[in-house]
Amino acid sequence: MARFKRQKSLIGGLFSSQNKKRFLLSVVGFLLAVFLGVWALYRKEIEEIRFSIYQKFILTTHAHGLKLENIFIRGREKVSQDQIFQALGVPLHGPMLLVDLEATHQRLSSLPWVKEATLERHWPDTLFITIEERLPFALWQHEKNLYLVDKDGVIIPEGNLSIYGTLPSITGANAPKYLPDLLEALSLFPSLKQRVVSATWIGNRRWNIHLENKITLLLPEKEVQKSLERFIKYETTHHLTTAAKKRIDLRIPQRIIVE
User: Fold this and answer.
1) pLDDT band for position 24 (cuts 50, 70, 90)
2) Can you give the pTM of this predicted structure?
3) Which among 50, 117, 133, 182 could disulfide-bond with 108, CB atoms 3.0 to 4.6 Å apart, if both were Cys?
């Protein structure tokens, strides 16, 4: 009986908690090595089988009605249908499951005229695409070239600019980058904004705005809104642009210089 207990104690020691963990780790390591070896040896064949199963699955869903039958496009004017279909990557009547909304959104957003795009997939066969196009706002004259820009200061690649000749013009290096700030300030003074025909970004620091009666307003680097408030106040009471011959300097706080 004592001998049996000693044998049982010996066996228990061999299969202690620590030894069990080592044994299990050895088994797991062995199985992992076998799996990686098989994968490395038959990787190409496994990939081909996986791709074949995937293709059959797509074809089966397509045969049972999951196909792109209807595409509704809203908001498109400058963007062509061909550009949209190329961005979609799946032809009409193609498998619905192959429509990658995220990738299509990225491709649409990269188009020059597209500001924002949204896509909605309605199962089993319909896709809605909504395009928000960029709105041309000004012509930027830089180094003897003209560029079309929107209100965000983004350049819109466009070959034929003749139809945009009535838009306001801006000049100066980096002018499109700072155009949104100027528009934000002018938006508070609609009557003045309507009179602006062009603007010049000066020394990469501040704006001059040119009015329809050929009077130039020299704006400060900072506190543009306050300077415009001061101008509107005295324009209403003293008709500054009528009295001025060339320009009105608003760069000095609490002062207006009429020339």
Assistant:
1) confident
2) 0.73
3) 117
